Amino acid sequence: MADIASELGMSPANVYRFFPSRDAINESICGRALNEVADIASAIACVNVPAMEKLDRLLTAVHRHNKMTLVEERHMHDLIVVAMHENWTIIKAHVERMVAILEAVIREGIEEGEFEVEDAAQAARAVKMAFTPFFHPTLIEHCIRHGEDTEADLHNQIRFILKALGRSG
């Protein structure tokens, strides 16, 4: 805590007024990063375009954001990896929020006749699982290290999922 306080130009006692431990600070920082991703997804979910376009934009934006975090904010990437490996509760909450956003978009698509699935919640969980390789920081890092074209694979997966949801037209 002393090094954090020093970096912020304050006393350790002052830092302890806001955070009981270094773990609490890390969880708060990780939460802010995860909320940024969910806020991006939520904003796209609210755009006035067809649900299939929302889903495409949302999945692409989340992947690109997570990939950018690896490249441009390595410390944040590493913190999120630790949080996932240690199964922090904030990770579970983030995943649940993302699935809820996906479910809302899919439900909208069902209501508008774009998607033909019966259970939006089940479809949202399936979409989350199908995009784990494009969202999970460790898997993104693996793909980049091995020179894989994640953008092409992402777009192929999006096309596949849109067909699986029963995209009309």
Fold blueprint:
Elements: H1 2-8, H2 12-18, H3 22-45, H4 51-72, H5 74-85, H6 89-111, H7 120-130, H8 132-135, H9 137-145, H10 150-164
Helix pairs in contact: 1-2, 3-4, 3-5, 3-6, 4-5, 4-6, 4-10, 6-7
Describe this structure in words.
- By secondary structure, the chain is mainly alpha-helical.
- The chain has a single domain (31-164), classed as Orthogonal Bundle (Tetracycline Repressor, domain 2).
- Helices cover 79% and strands 0% of the residues.
- The chain contains ten helices and no strands.
- The protein has helices at 2-8, 12-18, 22-45, 51-72, 74-85, 89-111, 120-130, 132-135, 137-145, 150-164.
- The radius of gyration is 18 Å and the shape is elongated.
- The model has no long low-confidence stretch (mean pLDDT 90).
Tell me the number of helical segments per DSSP (H or I, 4 or more residues long). Answer: 10
Number of domains: 1
Classify the secondary structure makeup into a structural class: mainly alpha
CATH superfamily annotation: Tetracycline Repressor, domain 2
Shape-level CATH architecture: Orthogonal Bundle
Shape: elongated
**Mean pLDDT score:** 90
User: From N to C, what is the helix and strand string?
Assistant: HHHHHHHHHH
What features would you highlight for this structure?
169 residues; mainly alpha; Tetracycline Repressor, domain 2
